[in-house]
Amino acid sequence: MLYLNLATHQPTFNNRPAMMQSTQKPSKTLTLTLDAWESKSPLSTTANKSLSVLSNASAEYERPLPIKLSLNKSQISKSATPNLNTPFEVPGTPQNEHNQTQNEIITTPQQYLEWFEQIEKSIDNEHESKYQNHLQKLNSELQVHEDILNKVSLLEDEISSLRDNWDAIDTGTASLKDACQRYLDERDDLIALKEKMQEQQQQQQQKQKQ
C-alpha cells in the first residue's frame, strides 16, 4: 500500500491492510418468514388441484396417518417445504389398487409421482364407472321407452284397422238398407198390382153373371 510521509514528503510503502478493510462490517444474513415465502412463491393451479385431490382421497378413505408422519404443530410450522428424504407411508389409496401399492413406502420423488399417477387413474376409473352406470341406466330407460312407442304404434295400427272395418260395415249397412228399401217398394208395387188384378177379375165375374 502506498503512503505519503508528512516529514520527508516522500512516498512510502506499507504492506499493512487498509483501515477501511478492517472496519468493514459483516453482511447480515437475510431471513424469510413462512408467510413471506408463501406470498413470494404461490402454488400453481396444478399444485392446488393436486393438493385438493390428495385431500379428497385422504378424507374419503379415512386412513389414519402412519407414525412416521405424526409431527407436532411446531415441526409443521417450521418446515415450509416437505423433506423428500423422510420416508412415509402412502396415504389411503383406493380399494381397487393392489395391497402391495397400498403398503409402499415413498422415499423418492419418482415414487411419489407414480403413487400420485395411480391416485389420478383410480379417480378417473371411478368417475368412468359412474358414467358407465349412468349411461347403462339411460340406455335401459331408452329401451323401455322405445318398447312403449312400438306398442303405441301397434295400437294405432289396430285402431286404424278397426276404423276401416267400421267404415266398411257402415258402407255395407247403408247398401243393405237401400236394397231393403227397394225390395219393400217392389213388394208394395206387387201388392198394388195384385189388388188391381183382383178387382179387374171381380169386375169380369160380375159382368159374366149379368
TrEMBL record:
Keyword line: Coiled coil
Protein name in the entry: Uncharacterized protein
Coiled coil: 145-210
An example Gene Ontology CC term for this record: cis-Golgi network
PANTHER family in the cross-refs: CONSERVED OLIGOMERIC GOLGI COMPLEX COMPONENT 3, CONSERVED OLIGOMERIC GOLGI COMPLEX SUBUNIT 3
Presence of keyword Acetylation: no
The keyword Nucleotide-binding belongs to this UniProt entry's keyword annotation: no
Organism superkingdom: Eukaryota
GO biological process, one term: intracellular protein transport
